[in-house]
Specification:
The protein is of the alpha+beta class. The chain is built from four helices and 17 strands. It has one domain: q2cbj1_9rhob like domain (Jelly Rolls). It binds 2-oxoglutaric acid.
Length: about 270
């Protein structure tokens, strides 16, 4: 099952879509088991910040991940759906778990992803898969429909608070929060969003955990330029694009410049 024409149309129009594609309950249960293990194996790391969770063992960003998430990112149904949105050449370049514990799950400030990423031309489709129920009460993803359309990055302000997942926030006046849409999902459902879409999520003060996994895919017409952003904490936690592994999952690298060897020492697919 891949995307219908109307789902593709909604993604183009709104900058996101919730497709009918979804994971089976058995798959969700298995992935939740993996997530529970990762949380136990990464005691010093906030579960909203499990970056590069698809890399087995301890990755260059200090997180212990699992190839179970790499298997998920390579799922042929998901990759085919992404190809309908970004074209036939699909490169996997990132995967982060945003798990908000019940009671004190952190807010994700309104932002555009493109602000944080070294991809030129800037392009990515994120597939955000719910592992738990993701509802208004436990801090589901929220989006500003159509905010991707100008295909430009708006001003972001430095966020000084410690209790937010990212440290930059789309500046006041760059969007109208009254137009926000809450993306409520059942476990196994997913949303797909464009790199320019303004989105974020509220803190989770409910007793119910809200875990989702964000998988990032770019087209083979873009370059993952490892020289643009030095390793650092520009997102509020350690990010190292210089050692990020890339996987060509469909088609070709049209730039001929993407490096698919870097960073694969720990990245073992099963
Ligand atoms: O999981 C969230 O609440 C935020 C996710 C996000 O910002 C992203 O996937 O780009």
């Amino acid at each position: 099952m891949t995307l219908s024409e109307s789902e593709i149309g909604r993604y183009r129009q709104d900058g996101y879509v919730v497709p009918s594609l979804r994971l089976s309950p058995a798959r969700v249960a298995a992935l939740r088991g993996t997530l529970d293990r990762l949380i136990a194996e990464n005691p010093g790391i906030r579960p909203e910040r499990l970056v590069s969770a698809h890399i087995e063992g301890r990755n260059a960003e200090g997180v212990r991940g699992s190839a179970d998430f790499l298997d998920l990112a390579r799922d042929p149904g998901i990759v085919a759906a992404v190809a309908r949105l970004i074209g036939p050449d699909v490169i996997l370049w990132g995967c982060q778990i945003f798990c908000k514990p019940g009671g004190n799950g952190m807010e994700v400030p309104w932002h555009q992803d493109g602000h944080y990423w070294p991809i030129r031309p800037l392009a990515t489709c994120t597939v955000w898969i719910a592992l738990d129920e993701s509802k208004i009460e436990n801090g589901c993803l929220r989006v500003i429909p159509g905010s991707h359309r100008a295909r430009e990055l708006h001003a972001h302000m430095r966020e000084e608070r410690e209790d937010v997942v990212l440290n930059q926030r789309a500046a006041d006046g760059t969007f109208d929060e009254a137009t926000a849409v809450d993306i409520e999902l059942e476990p196994g459902q997913m949303s797909m969003h464009d790199v320019y879409l303004i989105h974020g999520s509220n803190a989770n003060r409910s007793p119910k955990r809200r875990a989702g996994i964000a998988i990032r895919y770019m087209p083979g017409t873009s370059l993952f330029d490892r020289t643009i952003m030095r390793p650092g904490d520009q997102s509020g936690y350690k990010i190292d694009f210089t050692t990020r592994p890339l996987w060509l999952l469909a088609g070709q690298d049209r730039t001929g410049l993407n490096d698919f060897r870097v960073g694969h020492a720990h990245a073992v697919a099963r």
